[in-house]
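Re: weekly structure request thread

Next one in the queue (76 aa):
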Amino acid sequence: MAYRESFYRYLMTQRDSDSNDEIAQFANNAQNDQTFPKQEQDYEKLSDYLELNAGYLSSMSIFDQAYEMYQEKMAY
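Done, posted below.
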C-alpha cells in the first residue's frame, strides 16, 4: 500500500498568515492546536475531533472542503 501523508501534514501546506481564505485560516489555527491528531488520515476521526475541540473552525464545511482537497492530492 502506498504511503499517504496525514491530513495535518497536508493542511500545513495550506497555511498563509496573510490570507483571508477560510482553509488558510483553518490551517493557521490548526498549527497552534497542540492536541490536533497530527497522524490521522480518517475523515470520521478528524471530524469527531474537530466538532468537539476546534472552536477556531467557524464551519465544518471548511473542513469538508479541505479534506476533499486532501483526498484529491492523495489520489495521485
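The chain has a mean pLDDT of 95. Helices lie at 7-12, 22-31, 43-53, 60-74.
Next request, please.
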